[in-house]
Design a protein that fits this description.
The chain is α+β, with helices and mostly antiparallel strands. The protein has 37 helices and 61 strands. The strands form 14 sheets. Strands 2-3-4-5-50-49-1-48-47 form a nine-stranded antiparallel β-sheet. Strands 22-23-24-25-29 form a five-stranded mixed β-sheet. Helix 9 packs parallel to helix 18, helix 25 crosses helix 26 and helix 28 crosses helix 32.
Length: about 1450
């Protein structure tokens, strides 16, 4: 999934810890990290103090939908913080433990029960050996999660129940020892070069033993002669040579063995389902043959009949002293750790109550004579205990309702209504609370005047359920066909209630089910009209109903299911509802009649379910391309909702998926008219998602702030309030551009009308856009209620009316207040509080990270425990100490201040990057808005005082205007200071504040956003990246270049010559959707990329990053002359230190050349499925070609590049109006805008190259014979004419002198680009006034000729009628001025170089048939010019004809001389 969308999750945990029923545990070797996986699919990461083993829960990883069964390390590198997890649903993920990002995730058909990470011979890193419910052993890569190869069985293949990999002491290869569930032991030996392509790998030997359903198999690490195999009732020690039983241990009564391991050649530790560990001493005479004296194997007592003292002896027990019964078997793992060279052996146990216990096995290893001691665990902890230690406890979203002395009412269900900004929360006592969402969040998290108000924010209570509210649904969100005012709730009291959201009235109570309601769903939109008015509810008595909200009755009751309902699918066209149950049966119901059509089992049932999925995909595809409402995509019925206990996980997934679907649809939705708004659906700036790991838990809440959605909302609110005139004034709609564009169209008489028509249309377009936006806003606010067409308007109480001012500003206020680094710059903090209206946070915030595939990690509030000492060390604020706050609140306030100034930026690089991007992007957006501040009074003033709304102005207004203007300037300055702090100054300030480990923003994440589709985010990313690169300094940049250079894809001019190119061109992506290649993700530069996808990501990042470094820091300005003509091609004369690897010497392996080639390849590669025509990557290439043109130029084929860019911005005139809106553009408009910018940059950086290249192309096109097919550049030139003219106009304006040297070429280009018909009726100075600033240019409308004097002394005379040009050698030096006489018979030219003034007369043959001859009629020699006057060549001299025969030469010093023909 493209996580290009910046999402900042913030979690409000509430007073209760999430339940954590542990299903697997893992402890890292350095004893710093403990990881526990639970039955609900979450993974908790604990920070462990290696010395004291004190554990603090740090964060929760969400993403699995089924119990996490296996956890394993992913790398041999000690501080490489990655782990691999696998769940019962076949999902596998690789997580980065530092910031909890999911680095890779796959879903396999095979389900693992056990994973052993093992470092094979001949491989660089760990491989995962997996076994489970399938007949092979899979060997997987830990980072790409690809299956590298698998081991198969020849002899009775069956599921493998346990395996062990080891390297025999005397051999070079690895041996895999495994046992199948039917008791066949198998052995494979591996050399390390196996791969997928090789033949199936069969076992080397196998033997049947009497050991069914083994649970674990371990080989003794100390002598490799004995093997321990554990079954539920007994475990046995086998001889590793011939697999004969040496001895066996029975499980204690009432317990079953789980697994075990060797502690020494004659000691084993075995643990049972009751969570106890038993240590046994093995009888020495059984082992004597091998281990002890290693004598002859045929020792007589070795296989002899056993006697009493031959059985293993129990000598120690590891158990909890209280011996509590467990509800399910705990997860237990034996761990070897080494800290500071000291090895420890620990037994870890995590049980169903979420308690983690640790035993030190070394304490119990030595037997005590005559008794069997029981050892208690050395460490005990759980999430609940960690939560209990917190004082004050973590904040919840509705804490204002809890009173210290009354028991707390738990929150059980919640839903957020975006449009109304309302949070609806169902509680345990059956009440439903409706409250303003942004206000309640402000109340929990931020300081401010609102903390003093009683009973704020106002809330509404809906009372109607007896007992817990289980689920809530607001159908209008899912599809607009439902009534805006309807809210549906389901409770534990078997009832489904329908409420009027506005009046709070209970409209109807459906009592149809005979069990508590577990889920409410909306049927798809193409059902029959009757079903469209229904919602579907599922209850715990295995029944499903369709309840009609408009008829207020039950349409269908589907209740004969024997097992719990897990899936509901739809076949709307056949009128079928397909219900899947947990035992795999499928019931097909007719919706209209409620008739059970059939019951299916087995394979057919599965096929029917998957068939439903396909139809859904088709319909959605259709719906998406038709551009209908996309919110339907988040409908959980469309997604597969697994088991009811995971309902909230699915909801969270759906929330992320919704943004994604909207994105993709926006990519697919075609461009409507030129003014079409970007087809992307508007994204919600804030989503509040209830979240709990287990249905028994009260809910915690996650706020997802979507930065891009927020920016779009802010800007569209801003624009909707502006009139078209002020929009044009602000430069949001351009009319000048259209004038240039019009030149290239043919000038038929009505063209003028057309042009004004276009402008009027654009104004109108802006107006319709504005009305559209306004209508949208209105509709959002619920002013126009299309459902009330019966004519009766309901009276609604004021307090809950949804017509409040838009809440986007409040959302932005909360987010900026939470992210801002308070305390680093006290002056700025004061400005932020007084002028900008930010509020200080009250509690340290729990942030989250959303990574790819909708996985997410959220920080736990308990990690604060780890910061106690940091907090104690910080200086106290005297103001705080004097206040009468209780000590725990004082401590919390101090911690909060420390957090926002320092600890916040030490969490992880991903968080730093995302948060800085968010702040800078938002601050820039608010800076661009008029008077945008969060101070309430100012906000109101701003709404009233729109500069465009008033027509007359009063005297009193003048002062008010000035005040407002001053205030606006202050506010703008405040935002700009805020942006500067976070963009440039932050790292130094944080370090100055005493941060030991400031986590820098990640260069590669910023590089991937170089051309993000949201302009504000794009600018923020570019600013941050450049700030970070310049902070790295030459050395840092050099090492960065060296790191990434290896990933740069290699291209020759024709094709790619990459070593990887055997399979396919490396750089041409295979993105599922156009944004895929800019995915974020953390890269360790330590490892080689493991998968093709990752290699592609590395390559795109490398191209962009090296492009940026090259463009911004790669050229040595000193060696460039003022005019571009003194460029030096030899690399040695450049100072190599400044060029940083971008020198032209062969030593750096032509890095600049390779980068330039890669960039041009990206620009010119034709659009394909692998690399679509408009992607952020392509835009980045275009942008960087423009920025660094001076660096890349020696390696580029300039004309190709320019023609490619022209091609890209050829439709600019169509796309332009929507381009300047700050809203996200359509990808096409965006590429177009970027290409225009790049052209401008190239033209101004190298005017000469731009003009000569263009002139060459024009000449090529002109020279092509009419019959031959036109050269490829012709089309681009034809379509991009307006752009070329714009470029030339700009150059004349900015670089007058440079253009003067190439006037003839410029004129060639202009005449090619301007439609000739314009010049019939109008003079050149009207058509293209810029060029007429040059005195060397003259146009004679009467004879339709244009004369241009060049700097070589040539005169070029263009005859527009005949369409040809002749050139005369007129002067010995540059021509200073020339002019046609009014009747066009004479042309006069003057050059200061040889002080000559010549008159030319062209004599045509009879009737213009013969060849026209132009000859010199008269020549005057003039007085040489004073040197002072030569300084400004453009102003040197002008020639003015006073009548048909006399011309006046006006010099710069004011003298005038007359000459006659």
């Amino acid at each position: 999934m493209p996580s290009t969308n910046l999402i900042v999750p913030v979690v409000l945990w509430g007073k209760h810890a999430p339940t954590h029923c542990i299903s697997s545990v893992y402890l890292s070797r350095d004893q710093k990290t403990l990881v526990t996986g639970c039955y609900d699919g979450q993974i908790c990461i604990w920070q462990v103090d290696p010395e004291t083993l004190k554990m603090t829960p740090r964060c929760l990883l969400v993403g699995h939908t089924a119990p996490v069964t296996c956890l394993s390390r992913a790398s041999i590198i000690q501080d490489n913080n990655f782990i691999v997890s696998s769940s019962e649903a076949g999902e596998m993920c690789t997580w980065d433990l530092v910031d909890g990002k999911c680095r890779e995730s796959v879903k396999l058909t095979q389900i693992h029960t056990n994973i052993q990470a093992y470092h094979m011979c001949n491989s660089e890193d760990l491989r995962l050996f997996c076994n489970g419910y399938y007949a092979e052993i899979l060997i997987m890569d830990a980072f790409s999660l690809e299956i590298l190869f698998c081991l198969s069985s020849k002899m009775n293949p069956d599921w493998i129940s346990a395996l062990h990999v080891l390297r025999p002491s005397s051999r070079k290869d690895d041996v895999v020892l495994a046992i199948s569930i039917t008791g066949t032991v198998k052995v494979w030996s591996l050399l390390g070069h196996e791969n997928k392509q090789s033949e199936p790998i069969y076992e080397n030997e196998s033997k049947q033993i009497r050991c069914l359903n083994a649970l674990a198999l371990n080989c003794c690490a100390y002598n490799q002669r004995t093997v321990l195999i554990v079954c539920a009732k007994y475990c046995q020690i086998y001889d590793a040579g011939d697999f004969s039983v040496l001895c066996s241990i029975q499980a204690p009564s009432g317990e079953r063995w789980m697994s075990g391991d060797f502690l020494a050649p004659d000691r084993v530790l075995v643990w049972s389902t009751e969570g106890k560990g038993y240590l046994y001493k093995l009888p020495a005479n059984k082992l004597r043959g091998r281990a002890i004296s290693s004598s002859v194997p045929d020792h007589k007592g070795f296989h002899g009949p056993s006697v009493d003292h031959d059985s293993p002896v129990l000598y120690s027990i590891l158990a909890h002293p209280d011996n509590k019964l467990l509800s399910c078997p705990p997860a237990i793992r034996f761990a070897l750790t080494s800290v500071g060279g000291k090895q420890r052996r620990l037994l870890l146990r995590g049980d169903s109550a979420g308690v983690v216990s640790l035993w030190n096995v070394d304490d119990a290893v030595n037997p005590v004579p005559q008794k069997v001691p029981s050892h208690a665990p050395i460490v005990l902890t759980s999430l609940e205990m960690a939560w209990a230690e917190m004082n004050p406890s973590p904040v919840g979203i509705l804490d204002q309702f809890s009173h210290p002395d009354e028991p707390e009412i738990k929150l059980t269900a919640s839903i957020y209504l975006l449009v109304a900004n309302r949070l609806v929360v169902g509680r345990e006592d059956g009440s439903i609370v409706i409250v303003n969402a942004t206000h309640t969040v402000q109340l929990q998290l931020l300081h401010g005047s609102h903390q003093q108000l009683d009973d704020w924010p106002p809330h509404q209570l809906l009372l109607g359920h007896n007992g817990r509210v289980n689920c809530l649904l607001y159908p209008h969100h899912v599809h607009p066909r439902y009534d805006k005012s309807h809210l549906v709730s389901g409770g534990i009291d078997f009832a489904v209630c329908l409420w009027d959201l506005f009046s709070g009235a209970l409209l109807h109570r459906f009592c149809v089910h005979a069990g508590e309601i577990t889920q409410l769903i909306v049927p798809p939109q193409n059902c029959s009209p009757r079903i469209q008015k229904c919602i579907c509810s599922v209850a715990s008595d295995h029944s499903v109903t369709l309840l009609s909200l408009s008829e207020r009755k039950c349409v269908t009751l589907a209740s004969r299911h024997l097992f719990p309902v897990t899936t509901i699918k739809w076949r709307p066209l056949d009128d079928f509802m397909v219900v899947g149950c947990s035992d795999g049966t499928v019931y097909v119901w007719q919706m209209e009649t409620g008739h059970l059509d059939r019951v299916l089992h087995g394979m057919i049932a599965e096929e029917v379910l998957s068939a439903c999925d396909e139809t859904v995909a088709d319909e959605l595809g259709g719906a998406v391309s038709a551009g209908t409402d996309l919110q339907g995509l988040a409908n959980p019925a469309v997604h597969f909702f697994r088991g009811l206990r995971h309902r909230n996980l699915t909801a969270m997934r759906a929330a992320t998926a919704r943004g994604l679907a909207a994105l993709q649809a926006g990519e697919r939705g075609g461009g409507g008219g030129p003014l079409a708004e970007p087809a992307r659906a508007r994204r919600a700036p804030l989503t509040v998602q209830g979240f709990r790991s287990n249905p028994a838990d009260p809910e915690s809440h996650i706020l997802f702030f979507d930065i891009e959605g927020l920016i779009v909302e802010l800007l569209s609110e801003e624009y909707s309030a502006m009139s078209p005139a002020s929009l044009e004034a602000a430069g949001l709609i351009t009319s000048e551009y259209m004038k240039v564009a019009a030149l290239t169209q043919s000038a038929s008489p009505d063209a003028a009308k057309k042009i004004s028509g276009i402008l009027a249309k654009m104004k109108e377009g802006a107006e319709t856009m504005q009305t559209k936006l306004q209508a949208k806003a209105e509709q959002l606010k619920g002013h126009l209620d299309p459902k009330d067409d019966q004519g009766q308007k309901r009276q609604r109480p004021r307090d809950m009316s949804l017509a409040e001012p838009p809440h986007t500003m409040e959302i932005a206020q909360i987010l900026l207040s939470l992210l801002h680094a308070w305390g680093l710059d006290p002056d700025l903090d004061r400005v932020a509080e007084s002028k900008l209206g930010l509020l200080r946070p009250m509690v340290p915030v729990c942030f989250g990270v959303v990574s790819r595939h909708g996985h997410m990690s959220v920080q736990l509030p308990t990690r604060l425990g780890g910061w106690a000492e940091a907090c104690a060390a910080a200086p106290d604020d005297p103001l705080l100490l004097n206040s009468d706050l209780p000590p725990e609140l004082l401590r919390q306030e101090k911690l909060t201040r420390l957090f926002s100034s320092k600890l916040h930026w030490e969490l992880s690089t991903t968080l730093t990057t995302n948060h800085l991007l968010s702040i800078v992007a938002l601050a820039n957006t608010l800076m661009s808005m008029s008077n945008a501040s969060f101070v309430p009074e100012q906000e109101v003033a701003r709404k009233l005082h729109r500069p465009t709304t008033r027509t007359s102005s009063w005297a009193g207004d003048e002062e008010r205007e000035e005040q407002l203007a001053a205030q606006q300037a202050h506010i703008k300055q405040g935002w700009s200071l805020l942006a500067t702090l976070h963009c440039v100054l932050l790292p130094d300030k944080v370090v100055a504040a005493g941060a030991k480990s400031f986590k820098r923003p990640q260069v590669e994440m910023l590089a991937r956003r170089w051309q993000h589709h949201c302009l504000e985010v794009r600018e923020a990313a570019q600013a941050l990246l450049l700030a970070e690169l310049s902070r790295l300094g030459p050395k840092g940049r050099k090492s960065l270049v060296d790191n990434w250079a290896q990933y740069l894809p290699l291209y020759t001019h024709t094709e790619s010559i990459n070593p990887h190119a055997a399979q396919k061109e490396p750089h041409e992506k295979v993105p599922k959707d156009p944004e895929e290649e800019f995915e974020e993700e953390e890269e360790e530069l330590v490892r080689k990329p493991s998968s093709k996808a990752e290699l592609k990501r590395q390559q795109t990042t490398a191209v962009v990053l090296l492009g940026v470094i090259g463009a911004e820091f790669g050229q040595d300005i000193a060696s460039e002359g003022a005019a571009g003509n003194k460029r030096r091609k030899d690399g040695d004369s450049r100072k190599s230190s400044i060029v940083e690897g971008f020198t032209l010497s062969a030593a750096s392996n032509n890095l600049a050349r390779l980068t330039a080639l890669a960039l041009t390849h990206l620009l010119l590669a034709p659009g394909s499925s692998r690399l679509p025509a408009h992607t952020p990557l392509r835009r980045a290439a275009v942008d960087l070609l423009g920025r660094g043109f001076a660096v890349w130029e020696p390696y580029l084929d300039v004309s190709h590049v320019l023609i490619g860019l022209l091609e890209m911005c050829s439709d600019a005139d169509k796309l332009v109006p929507s381009m300047t809106y700050g809203l996200p553009l359509t990808p096409q408009a965006d590429s177009c805008r970027t290409a225009r910018h790049a052209l401008t940059l190239i033209a101004t950086a190298r005017p000469a190259a731009f003009i000569t290249t263009m002139a060459r192309e024009v000449a090529r096109v002109a020279a092509a014979p009419a019959s031959a097919p036109p050269p490829p550049a012709a089309a681009a030139l034809q379509r991009g004419r307006a752009e070329v003219l714009r470029g030339i106009e700009l150059l004349i304006e900015r670089m007058h002198a440079e253009v003067a040297e190439l006037l003839v070429e410029v004129m060639d280009i202009i005449l090619h680009c301007v439609d000739q018909s314009h010049l019939k009726s109008k003079g050149l100075n009207e058509v293209f006034p810029a060029i007429c600033r040059y005195n060397q240019v003259s146009h004679c409308p009467a004879t339709r000729r244009i004369a241009v004097g060049s700097h070589t002394g040539q005169l070029a005379i263009y005859e527009l009628r005949a369409g040809r040009c002749q050139s005369l050698a007129a002067h010995g030096g540059a021509v200073t001025a020339c002019a046609f006489s009014p009747d066009g018979r004479y042309l006069v030219s003057y050059a200061t170089a040889d002080n000559r003034l010549s008159f030319w007369q062209s004599t045509a043959g009879m009737f213009g048939l013969g060849a026209a001859q132009t000859r010199c009629v008269k020549c005057y020699s003039t007085a040489p010019m004073a040197d002072v006057a030569r300084l400004n060549p453009a102003r040197l001299a002008r020639l003015v004809w006073t009548n048909a025969r006399t011309v006046t030469l006006m010099l710069a010093d004011g003298s005038e001389t007359r000459f006659n023909v």
